[in-house]
Each structure stands twice: as C-alpha cells, then as structure tokens.
Amino acid sequence: MDRYGQDGGRADAPPAEEAVEARLGRLLAIQGPLPNNLHSVRDLVQWRDEVVRLGQRRDDGICPLGDLAELLADGDEAARSAVRACLAAWESLLAGGITRIRESGELAADADPERLATSLMAALQGGLLLARTTRDVRRLEVALDIALGYVRAHAVTL
C-alpha cells in the first residue's frame, strides 16, 4: 500500500479520480449521519467529540480527508475537483444542521449557517493538519472548540 492508500501503481502517483471518489464516498458515508443529526448546539458539541474520537484513530474516516486534501495539491484536476466536491458536501451538511439549530430558536435569526459551517470546516481541516504534524489530537480539539465558541456567540440567551 502506498502513501495514498492505494495498492499498485507508482508509489508517489496521486490516486485516480475513481479511487478518490470511492474514498470520499466512504468518508461521507461515515460522516454524513453526524451532521444530519444536528438539532442543537449540544449536538454540535457531540459532533465535535465524535470527530476528535475519530481523529485519534487513523482509519476511521477523518484522516483520509486530510490525506487527500494535503496530498492532492499536486494531483490532477479531476481528483482535486472530487476533493472540492466532498468538502462542499460536508460543509453543506454542517450548514443544514446549523440552519436547523437556528430554526429551533437556539441561534439568533441573523446567524449565517454557511459562514458558521465554513468556520467549522476551517477549524476541522486546520486542526487535522496540526494534529497530524504534531501527533497531538488536542490541536484538533482546540481548533474545533474555538469554532464552536464562534457558533455559541450567536446563541440566543433567554
């Protein structure tokens, strides 16, 4: 198995578009249920806890996205396009969950779900990069906690 998680081929050859799409499909299958069940800020915290737990285990669906986003920087355009589509789909799932939280009245009406979802994705990707380079998952926890603080800043206080 090469550094891209493929069998066969050149050791440093980026994965083909089909292989990328298959890996991304598996990732979304693992992650999809988490953001689809966001109905409160508490659910977001549970999502964060699950992401961190998965980040501690190399083969559980989080790290492959970090691998692809990092390693495909020099890959072909079709593969990069597949990664961008996956990131957009994941961010869209988060935005949908944040919209549900806002509609429940827990977040202010002017809270922007897309902006909040982007902050969570940026924290996730940056946190994964830091966690991988330092081999310290607490970096991922801190990044996600800061993004959750941004979400909580839009909470309605009763």
Written description of the protein model:
Residues 1-6 have low confidence and may be disordered. Helix 1 runs parallel beside helix 5. By secondary structure, the protein is an all-alpha fold. The protein has helices at 17-31, 33-36, 41-56, 63-71, 77-103, 113-134, 138-152. The chain is 68% helix and 0% strand.
**How many DSSP E strands?**
0
Helix and strand succession? Answer: HHHHHHH
Unreliable spans are 1-6
- By secondary-structure content and strand pairing, the structural class works out as mainly alpha
Share of residues in strands: under 5%
If you compute it from the alpha carbons, what radius of gyration comes out, rounded to the nearest whole angstrom? 16 Å
Continuous helix count: 7
Mean pLDDT: 79
**Alpha-carbon distance between the termini?**
55 Å
Given the C-alpha coordinates, what overall shape results? globular
Largest sheet: none
The percent of residues in helical segments reads: 55-70%
Describe this structure in a few short sentences.
With 158 residues, the chain is mainly alpha-helical. The protein is 68% helix and 0% strand.
Topology overview:
Blueprint (H helix, E strand, L loop, with lengths): L16 H15 L1 H4 L4 H16 L6 H9 L5 H27 L9 H22 L3 H15 L6
Helix pairs in contact: 1-5, 3-7, 5-6, 6-7
Provide key terms for this protein.
disordered N terminus; 0% strand; single chain; mainly alpha; 7 helices; 158 residues
